[in-house]
Amino acid sequence: MKKFKLNRLREGFLYGLLFMGFNGIKNLIFDYGETSQLIKELSHSPKEVIGVVAITLLGLWLVVGLLIGVGLIISDVLKK
Fold this sequence. Notes:
The structure is a single chain. By secondary structure, the chain is mainly α. 95% of the residues lie in helices and 0% in strands. The longest helix has 34 residues, at 46-79. It starts with a helix and ends with a helix.
């Protein structure tokens, strides 16, 4: 059962990554104002901005992945 729970957490992290990827691509394509602002910020101070963006994305991915993974585990427990 423990191995099954770890697999569901892994699936949750993969689903979270897919969600963030598709959502990010959609926002980059359809929200030109924020995309141009991000490019301007990257050109002024790339080291600080890249670090903040990377930490934010990593933290968001961990939270979304855990939420989806725990949701998958709970749904499996409730099915039984």
